[in-house]
Design brief:
- The chain contains ten helices and no strands.
- The chain has one domain.
- By secondary structure, it is mainly α.
């Protein structure tokens, strides 16, 4: 087991809740998984590939539900993905110091906190056309850090889409879900090419449990409404994780 058995079982109990909430807004949940793993003192070298692996399954489920509901904007996705995929692969090939990794992750978790609290990136009735150079620039920046840290990048992309009025809430969720999937796959490929992928037999268990939460979250997020109290609870967990990463 990655940590002490009693703590690991508690981790597994919280994992589907995180997957549910992230999938409900079209995200794979890597920032949440990384936050949980940091709180439960997982080794840094296992955190990155594990989070990306969980992302692949949960973001895939989320995208399926949002696509079926007719919210996917193909052009918007392609503008970001063209540059993000190679940069996510490149970021995945890089190994950085554990302390630097923790600090960058702590900063990126702030985006997740603001998103969960609906502070950063609110929906607007006005939708503007994104220009190709804008999409390529944003995609490249997010893609690199996605591969480097082990996130899919949706927690950054969806607020950017909403802040710059490039799409509505559901479109941002659908585009972010597939964006997360391709970046996670590219990041894992980059790690594999550099022999930097460290997984264990419990990874399959974590994927299965996360899929349960992700399936329910993707359905309710695309059809219904997520629970605000749970959002606030998750935001609190992310705050604790961010503080721990800054202070350790």
């Amino acid at each position: 087991m990655p940590v002490e058995p009693s703590l690991f079982y508690l981790f597994l109990a919280i994992l589907p809740v995180v997957a549910f909430l992230y999938a409900a807004v079209g995200h794979g949940g890597a920032s949440g998984y990384l936050a949980l793993m940091s709180l439960f003192s997982f080794m840094p070298e296992t955190m990155k590939p594990t989070a990306l692996l969980l992302n692949l399954f949960v973001a895939g489920i989320a995208f399926y539900h949002y696509y079926r509901s007719g919210y996917f904007n193909k052009k918007l996705f392609l503008y970001f993905a063209i540059s993000s995929i190679p940069l996510a692969f490149f970021g995945g090939t890089m190994n950085i110091d554990a302390d630097v990794y923790k600090k960058i992750l702590a900063i990126l978790l702030i985006f997740a906190i603001l998103k969960m609290l609906n502070i950063f990136g609110k929906e607007s009735n006005t939708v503007k056309e994104v220009r190709l150079w804008q999409g390529l620039l944003v995609g490249a920046f997010i893609g690199f850090f996605s591969g480097l840290i082990g996130i899919g990048g949706g927690i950054i992309l969806s607020p950017v889409i909403l802040l710059l009025h490039w799409g509505n809430m559901k479109e941002a969720a659908a585009v972010s879900a597939l964006f997360i999937w391709v970046n996670s796959a590219a990041g894992l490929a980059g790690q594999f090419s550099n022999n930097g992928m460290v997984l264990n037999e419990w990874s399959v268990v974590m994927v299965a449990i996360a899929l349960i939460g992700g399936t329910l979250g993707g359905y309710y997020g695309s059809k219904k409404m997520s629970n605000n109290r749970l959002r606030y609870l998750l935001a609190f967990v992310l705050v604790l994780a961010s503080l721990k990463l800054f202070l350790t």
